[in-house]
Design a protein that fits this description.
about 170 residues, alpha+beta, Beta-Lactamase, six-stranded antiparallel beta sheet, binds methionine sulfoxide
Length: about 170
């Protein structure tokens, strides 16, 4: 059994506590679904965000399809370039949205969501294979610190996408 340990109240320090633990949790497990599910669980437990999860590229029809997540019922598919998730996939850039209601192409999965961050995920060949998406019930929840550490998390997860897709 793995017990999660964290106590920091400062955001950067909390990420610094959590990321090595995520690295350990996924180290010996080859199954992609299991590892993404536990990663979402760790982030949900530590930060208490409204929604945290993954959308993965379905190359057969150029959409993102819902992957492991924690939080309310979510949209199943998002087309390339649509919404914050589809834009992060299309541009390959992390997107921080302080107020989703002010964003011209936000896809609303929950009326409770007020702010959002989407981080693209890459395999070892530099292909974007999906995105990590976090939503908060407060405006301006996410900033450069989240972008930096969730970007580091994307690099920790990267070997998973080369190992196995289940
Ligand atoms: N808001 C996202 C859609 C995903 S849900 O928030 C879980 C978007 O605009 O792409």
């Amino acid at each position: 059994m793995y017990t999660l340990n964290f106590s920091a109240t400062n955001k950067a320090a909390l990420y610094q506590e959590l990321l090595p633990q995520i690295r350990s949790i996924i180290a010996d497990e080859p199954n992609l679904t299991a590892n993404l599910a536990n990663t979402a669980a760790v982030l949900k437990e530590a930060f208490g965000w409204l929604w945290i999860g993954f959308y993965l590229v379905d190359g057969s029809n150029n959409t993102l399809v819902l992957g492991p997540f924690q939080g309310p019922l979510a949209c199943t598919r998002i087309p390339h370039g649509r919404g914050v998730c589809g834009q992060a996939w299309a541009t390959g850039e992390t997107i921080v949205v302080a107020d989703v209601h002010a964003h011209p192409d936000h896809v609303a999965c929950s009326s409770l969501s007020q702010s959002e961050i989407v981080v693209p995920l890459y395999d070892g060949n530099g292909n974007c294979i999906g995105v990590l998406d976090a939503d908060a019930a407060q405006t301006a929840q996410f900033d450069e610190t989240d972008a930096e550490y969730l970007g580091e998390l994307a690099r920790i997860l990267q070997p998973l996408f080369d190992r196995q897709a289940v």
